[in-house]
Every structure is written in C-alpha cells, then in structure tokens.
Prior knowledge:
Layout: E1 21-27, E2 29-31, E3 34-35, E4 44-47, E5 54-60, E6 65-70, E7 80-83, H1 85-89, E8 100-103, E9 106-109, E10 121-126, E11 132-134, E12 141-147, E13 153-161, E14 173-175, E15 187-188, E16 190-193, E17 196-203, E18 206-211, H2 215-218, E19 224-226, E20 231-234, E21 237-238, E22 244-246, E23 255-257, E24 261-268, E25 273-278, E26 282-285, E27 293-294, E28 296-299, E29 302-309, E30 316-319, E31 327-330, E32 337-340, E33 345-351, E34 356-359, E35 363-370, E36 375-380, E37 390-393, E38 396-399, E39 401-402, E40 408-414, E41 417-421, E42 429-432, E43 436-439, E44 444-452, E45 462-465, E46 469-476, E47 481-485, E48 505-507, E49 513-514, E50 521-526, E51 529-534
Amino acid sequence: MSFLALASGTFTISAQEAAERIEFRGQAMRVNDAPIGWDTSNPVSVEKNADGKYVFTVRFTGSCSCWQMCTDADNYRESCIVPSFDVAFVDYDPLPEDLYVKSQGIECFNGKYLETLVGKTILLGDQPNAATWICSSPKPTVYTVEINGDLTEMLITKAEVIHEEIEYPEALYLIGDGVPSGWDAATPMTKIDNGVYQYTGELKVGNFNILGQDPKIDENWDNAYGQESAQTINFNGVSDSRIQFFATKPGDCYYKVEFADQYVLTVDLENSIISAVVNHLYINGVPTDWNFVAMENEGNGIFSYRAYFDEAGQPFGLMIKPEWTDAYKVSTNIGKDYEFGLGDYSEKLVYGLGFSIKNAKPGHYVVRVDLKTLTLYTSTYNPDPVETLYVVTKGEYNKMSKQANGTFLWTGEVGADFVITPGTSAYPCYMPLAETVNVPASGLIGNKMLFNHDSSNGVENKWTVEKPGQYTVLVNPTAMTVSIGDETIAGVDDIKVVDPDAPVEYYDLFGRKVENPGKGFYIRVQGGKASKVIL
Length: 535
C-alpha cells in the first residue's frame, strides 16, 4: 500500500451516514490527551457537541504517528475518514514533495507544516482500508481540530506549543574518521543551552556518528542522532538539517564529511535541527589591494568586512580559503557583475567561480555574509565615532543631545524636510534609504538610514514632513534608524537590534510596545529590521 497516496487530493468526497461519534485507533498519538492504540474493542471516541460538530485535540508523540479515524468501531476498514492535506497546500508550497518525508521506511506527511494549516479548511473523504501517517511536529504541539457534522471538512483551529521540561543528555559525542579523534576516542560536544550542543574545530573527509553517550565508556552505539540515511556535510552545510533520535541506531545513521575544514557544528535537540558552518571566510579584490583578508568572525556563521570604497565599481570576491578556489558568487547574477548601492542590499550566494561583486557608488560599506543561509548583505556605516549629530532643517544645523544609551535626541521646529549630519556641513550625512520618505503628521518610527560620504554620489535624499511644526527627532546611529514624532518618541529606543530569528514585536507609531495589536498602523520589528504595517 502506498501511504503517500492517502494524502492525495484526488479522492471523491462522500458524506458518511449520520454518526453520533467518530473513533480513533493507531500509534504514537493522543486524542483528547488519551493515547490511542490498535485495539478495536476499546477505541478512543469523540462525540458530537451541541453544535453538531466533532471538536477534539490531537498530539503526535512519535517520529511516525499513525491516525486512523472511522465511524464504526466494528467495521474500521470500510468506515475510514481521511484528510486530504494536498487540498490545503495547493496554493502554499511550490515543492509539494517537501510535504512528505520518509520515516521508518514509510512516506509520511511532514508534520512541521501542520502549524501552517491553522485556519485552513481540509477536505475529508471515505478511504476504505486506509490510515493517515504523519511525522511528529518538530516541537511538542497540541492541535485543536473541528470537524463538521457530515464529516466532509476538517479545520485546525489552534496549534499550541507545549512548554515542557525535557531531560536532554549532558553531552553528545562525535566518533568516526570524520573527526580528529577518529574511531579510537569520542569527541564531546559542548552543551551551550538546554538541548543545544556545539563543536568548533576540524572535520575531516570521512564519516562520524552522533551519540548520546561515550561509546568508549558505555560500550553502547545506540541512542543515536541523525536520520535513517547518511547525510553529507560540506561548505554548503548539512544536506538535510532535520535530526531525530533513535534508541536503536540504524546502520546508515551517520554524517559524511565531503569537504575538510574548520566548522561550527551545532545540534539543537529542542528544535530537531543540525547545522554545520565553515568557520572562516576571506575577501579579495580592489578594496583589499588584491590581498586575501580574513573577514571578521561575528559568530554563528556570520562574517563581515568594513572598508571605504573610494570609487564606484570596485570588484571583490568571497573565498573559503586564501586562494582563488572555493569561492561564492551571487546566485541571481550568474555570469554577470552584481552591483549594490548605498541602501541595504541582500542577495543569495551560490558556490562557484567566475563572478564579480561591485559597489555602484563610493562609500563606507559593511559587507556581511551569513554562511548558514548563504546570503550576502551590504549596508553603509559612519567610520568615525559618533560624538555629535545635527538635524538640518529650514537651513539651520540644530545640534542634538547625546543620550546615555548612545542615541541622539532633539526637539524643535521642523520645516518641509530634514537630513541628519555628523557635522555642520552638507556632507557626509545620513539619508533615508528611499529617495522620498514622507513623514505623516502622526510621526515615523525606526526608519532606516544610509550614510552618504560626499556629493559625488548624486543623491539628495531627505525626509519630507507632511505637516511642518514642532517635533522630536531620535537617531540611533548603531541601528542606523531615525524616528520622528511628539515628545514620547524617546521611548522608541526600547526597540533593540536583536537576533534576526527573534520573535516579531509590534509598536505603535510613538514607539510603545503593543502586546496584542488589533486593526490599525503598527511598526513591525524583528531582529534589526523595522517596517510599517497595516493590520
């Protein structure tokens, strides 16, 4: 039987005869917090509520959970009701094959997508002799399910992550010819957080296992982490970032290193993922006088380089080693030069030679590369310590007051437009990223700035005020943002520049954090990015 076919959206929907309850059997799954099994004499059942609907919770507790839902406990085979997940994803995923994974030799619905189904209607249909196999979610999650009375539609109304304390091993161990210790000794990974382990060092061409105990002490090669099939590691990372636990180690549960180098290897059991990032990167080109310069390692696979590009069109390349091999190029401009401007730019990278990355205008640039996501970022910066800033408006340079947290504040009359300068001259200056940024009467929070070194760039971007008058201006030169509003704008400094994987936060137009935003205008902040949105 092909289990993958069970999730097909092609079956014919037919209403079951009126039933007062639906019943479940299967494995590694809980319905209304009761474990289900294969015993047909004692199934877990759900009865219709006062609204004529079946409402219950489900939780998948194993790497391969099986859910068989029917209307007749004495005739399971002929009364199965199966959800068509493809229907829910018809407009969602460009690669439908990603919706399925192979677990324990069976093709299963990929449980990590279940959270994206919340609020979507999923069709149900008769499928005799069938069951729906589902991989467990990456995080322990309880889903609230609602099924209509005629059993033709299912709705996941809520997905609630269970925050429970899980006892993780004190250490994980690497062993094999892919690590320096080889097969003679196990290399411990450092526990850096609850369920998160890291190894920084050399990986050799070869294989290694990840185990929950030192096999040289415990003489136990089970309790393994990985997948049923071998996964590869090279300069592009791990071939598949998913990782799971096996109490009994499958024969091919190991990692194969294809590219020997220094790596940061991280195993996150909390989120069931593994990552491997090469631990160095070099830049070479006109800005470095064609010398190979090691980029600054900011940690977690992020590398940066700061320099003044005194002319437009100064090419450079990004190399894994200090030689003209093993380089990255911009994926969207293969075979062509890639040019970035004064604004914040980002592009995906791919491995290969024959590339050229250039600046479109002179300026002070930060070139940043995230090897975890293979993304290139560029932005401008002020090379000097920021001791003074001025709001330039109505032809006057108005000195701002430096705050203890490094931001600058000024309150006064703003004319039709304004710019920010570090001195009492037109250049250098701070400008908005866009050529025209209109400031509404209600103000503007966390608007991104660029640093323009001189007039040769031919840009005169300014903030244009919709209604001239009394305003408070707040500048954060570290985050490269400017905010303008009434005197409460000072509170916007609570918006911090944090990790790009941080949760989304919302603020009103005066910088006050909003826990449960309703309809209206807000500032959406995630990591170092802030944007104005309408909810």
